[in-house]
């Protein structure tokens, strides 16, 4: 009789986050998030339009372009970002649909590194750790710095392979 190898907790919860992301109807990026306290799953969320409103597949994306000045090697450079403003991010939905008391000291697993706005919200939510898989390089430096300042553990899962049939194309 062979013994099946049991997944570690990080893989288990990230797998769930990827399964949750399959509910997303965003054409640019499917993101899923889960809230965990101890080993107990307290909530799940994905990115999408507000409940009852047309999503991007039905009404198209609402793209807003943002410009940010960043300092690279002592020189200011312009960084352009395009964001869909029809979509509520997975982390935002997770915070909307969970209770503060449940978030205190909890861990958020999210398929994608949080953007600056989501990082700010997570920093103020009572969580103690954020674990993500796919990087979002446009905000990495400032999000990492914010998490350090807040004392929140912030880490990327390395050598992780999402479950089959959960990966959607990503566009920035």
TrEMBL record:
EC number: 3.5.4.12
One MF annotation (Gene Ontology) recorded for this entry: dCMP deaminase activity
Record-annotated CMP/dCMP-type deaminase domain positions: 8-157
Necessary cofactors: Zn(2+)
Domain of life from the UniProt record: Bacteria
UniProt KW keywords: Hydrolase, Metal-binding, Zinc
Similarity field: Belongs to the cytidine and deoxycytidylate deaminase family.
Protein name according to UniProt: dCMP deaminase
Organism name: Paenibacillus sediminis
């Amino acid at each position: 009789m062979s013994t099946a190898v049991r997944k570690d907790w990080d893989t288990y919860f990230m797998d769930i986050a990827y399964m949750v992301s399959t509910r997303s109807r965003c054409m640019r990026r499917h993101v899923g998030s889960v809230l965990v306290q101890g080993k107990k799953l307290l909530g799940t969320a994905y990115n999408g339009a507000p409940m009852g409103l047309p999503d991007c597949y039905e009404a198209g994306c609402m793209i807003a372009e943002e410009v940010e000045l960043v300092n690279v090697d002592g020189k200011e450079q312009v960084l352009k970002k395009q964001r869909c403003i029809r979509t509520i991010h997975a982390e935002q939905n997770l915070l909307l649909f969970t209770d503060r008391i449940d978030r205190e000291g909890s861990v958020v697993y999210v398929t994608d590194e949080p953007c600056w706005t989501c990082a700010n919200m997570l920093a103020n939510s009572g969580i103690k750790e954020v674990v993500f898989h796919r990087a979002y390089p446009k905000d990495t430096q400032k999000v990492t710095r914010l998490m350090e300042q807040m004392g929140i553990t912030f880490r990327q899962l390395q050598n992780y392979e999402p479950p089959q049939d959960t990966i959607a194309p990503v566009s920035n």
